[in-house]
Structure formats: structure tokens, C-alpha cells
Amino acid sequence: MNAVPRLPLVLGALGLLPFVFLSGGTLFAEDPLRKSLVLALASYGAIILSFLGGIQWGMAIQDGGAPNTGRHVLLLSVLPSLGGWAALLLLPHHTGLLVLAAGYLLVLAVDIRLSRKGHAPEWYPRLRWPLTLVVASCLAIGSL
What is the value of pTM for the model shown? Predict the structure, then answer.
């Protein structure tokens, strides 16, 4: 019952593939290909970070946006999209990748708290921990 269901596990693992391949490519590619890979990594990172904010939005509205949880989480849920946008378009790419990595870690912290409060399944943090560690590592590698 507490195990991560197979489909979210498989989909989460498949979602790592662009992170792994793009960050690996940045280690070996020469310019201008390397610059294109870094931009692709930052873009994918920003998109998925925004997706995670959307999951938090869904958690917040599932109980009708109750004042004790919903409003606070709704406010937090828009930050990943804004942070991802800023990291992608307003910062140098090497800095933006590090900001994205930090964003993933912060979203994980919020998700763990939401899960403990019953707004997400008990298995959700067990899915998110390894995915977040791989993503943050890939983004850090891409920033080198």
C-alpha cells in the first residue's frame, strides 16, 4: 500500500531521460552544440519545474482551497513557474541551471510537507526524492 505505484514510477523515470542525456551531452560536446544542449536542459528543467508547481496547485484545490491550507499552497504553487521562467530567460544559463536545481529541492520540501498533511499520497515523497536528486545533479552538471 505504501509502495510507489508502477505507472508514476515508470513515467517519473522516463521523465529523467532528457535530464540525463542533455546533462551528459554538455560534458562532452563542443560549442556551439554545448550551448544548445545547455539551453535545452534549462528549458526542459523550467518546464518540469512548472509542472511540479501545477501538481501543488492541484493539491491545494482538491479540498476547495480551504483557508488553512489552500491559499498558502496556491501562493507557493505559482513560484516554481516564476522561478523557472526567471532561471531560463533572465539569468546566464550556468546560473539559471543552479537556480533550477535549488527550485527542485525547494519544491520537494513543500511536497514532503503536503504529503505529511495528507494532501498527497504517502508514496509521493518516495517517488520525488530520487527523481529530485537525479534532476538536481543533472542540472548542476549542466552548469559546469
Answer: 0.92
Residues whose CB falls within 8 Å of the CB of residue 140, separated by 6 or more in sequence, listed in order: 97, 98, 101
Long-range CB contact pairs, 69-74, < 8 A, 24+: 69/117, 69/119, 73/110, 73/114, 73/119
* Residue partners of 142: CB distance under 8 A and separation at least 6: 22, 23, 26, 37, 38, 41, 42, 97
- At 140, list the grid cell: 548542476
Cα–Cα distances (Å) from 84 to 11, 122, 133, in that order, read: 21, 27, 17
pLDDT tens digits for 31-59? 999 999 999 999 999 999 999 999 999 88
Domain boundaries, the chain: 9-142
